[in-house]
Amino acid sequence: MDTQKQIKRILAQPDAIETIRQLQNDPTHKTRAAFARAVCQHFLIRTAVHCQNLASRVLGMVLRRLGDDYEVQYHYRPWLVESFVDTDQFAGTCYQAANWVAIGQTRGRGRQDRQNLRAKSIKAIYAYVLDSGFRAKMGVAEPVGLVSLEIAEGLDGRQWADQEFGGAQLGDQRLSERLAESARLLGAMPGRAFCGVAQGNWPAIKGYYRMIDQPDDAGVTMEDILAPHRRRTIQRMKGQSTVLCIQDGTDLNYSGLAQCEGLGVIGSNQTGTDSPGLHLHSTLVVSTEGVPLGLLNAQCLAPTPRQKGQPAASLPIEEKKTFAWIQGLRDCVAVAVELPDTRQVCVMDREADFYALFDEQHQKRKVDLLIRAKHNRATTEDLSLLSRSDKVPYGIFCVSQYRAKARDRSGINKKPVKSALHVQQRLPYVITRSRCVLRPGMLQKNLSRYG
Question: What are phi and psi of 103, to 5 degrees?
């Protein structure tokens, strides 16, 4: 019998109140979930109405009296409220502002989809908890907190791909299984195209390209693909006292793809012609011994060149390429909430030497920064930043670099030279007790000073 029809039948009984209470207290009954939640089916504010924060305020007012109204009308109190948001038309911002939680997505199937056509649009599912003890009342176990992992745990054997990529929410279970299988094949031969990895397995090749050939609004995105691996990376971070979150960017040159759409401009060649491509900014987490723990974040951007004569200072920081460094820092700060016993040190290159990033870290103070200096910045003292480094201790490290293959005049490679070139590099560093305070420039007067 349909659940809603069964509920109506129960409500029509003379002893409906007692029956409902028994069903709510019985964790094995099939209709307990229906009595536990209330569904918000329609919520619409027309575009002609202009009132700031109206939607989230209305939701809050409704939720505050929903339990009492249900008890008066139906003689029971719901434990959860859920709603669905069609992401093709709406962003669900009002639910987020009202502290609803996105818990998943629908599969695009209606009640009558017996042929599994999935013709309906995929909707985001939002839930709001009215009773904090709803799990115990429904007979559901409390969720286990973030469990730490050893560095190599779950990476042995053929099941590593299922551990790192299994369960990705791509809108279809078959796509998730295809992702794990593709990752397993690519992991066996890294650096090669999938056609070469599959070794003539045409069904696997067609399935792989069908998986990645998705429209922009599909569930197969870089964020969704990396979500399971990101979670495992955070678990491995939890097992370490200190981790290094190394950010860096690289340009992906697609000059050979003349008909590819959605690319940005990553530079120009010798003739001044723009080079189409994408900019990839990633955060790789390693232990203090240099052992990789996983990829925490990856952003793929299509850079837009600045107009000629337009000063960089006129652009908002959100529209600059360097904003990716701030986004990476914010992501590490968000992860720090789950890692109270793990120290994160964000390591960045010279491109990250800009005031807005320092001010961002100064306001949050959840993670540490280690940045290679590019500018000789002014301090509140008489000496500049790099002048101070001449008066503090420095370290010397040795790098061994093998020479490139020797060539004769005909261009034919000779045998590689086995002797190595040893280089000693002087590395100055400012120790903690030599703390200095940087002075903002003329364009950063609205930012706080920080040391």
Answer: -110, 0
Nearest one of 423, 420, 421 to 398, comparing CA atoms: 423
Q: Do domains 3-138 and 242-369 have the same CATH topology?
A: no
- Does position 299 have pLDDT exceeding 70, yes or no? yes
Q: Domain coordinates of the chain in residue numbers?
A: 3-138, 147-239, 242-369, 375-451
Q: What is the DSSP string of 98-143?
A: TT-EEEEE--S--TT-TT----SPPEEEEEEES-TTHHHHHT-PPP
| Nearest-angstrom CA–CA distance, 355 and 449 | 9
pTM of full prediction above 0.85: no
To the nearest 10°, report the CA torsion of 187, 191, 193, 194.
0
Does 190 score more than 60 pLDDT? yes
Question: How far is the C-alpha of 80 from the C-alpha of 108, rounded, in Å?
Answer: 23
| Domain 242-369: which CATH number of 3.40.640.10, 2.60.40.10, 3.20.70.20, 3.90.350.10 | 3.90.350.10
For 3-138, CATH gives 3.40.630
Cross-strand pairs, 84 = 125
Contact status, residue 87 vs residue 123, Cβ threshold 8 Å: yes
Over residues 217-245, the pLDDT tens digits come to: 777 888 999 999 999 999 999 999 999 99
**For 204-213, 265-274, 348-357, 391-400, which range has the lowest pLDDT when averaged over its residues?**
391-400
CB 235 within 8 A of CB 246: no
Q: What is the 3-state secondary structure (H, E, C) of 181-237?
A: HHHHHHHHCCCCCHHHHHCCCHHHHHHHHHHHCCCCCCCCCHHHHHHHHHHHHHHHH
Q: Is the pLDDT of residue 390 over 60?
A: no
Q: Look at residue 350 and give its three-state secondary structure.
A: helix
| Cβ 303 vs Cβ 242: under 8 Å | no
428's enclosing H/E stretch is: strand 420-428
Residue whose structure tokens are 């040159």: 253
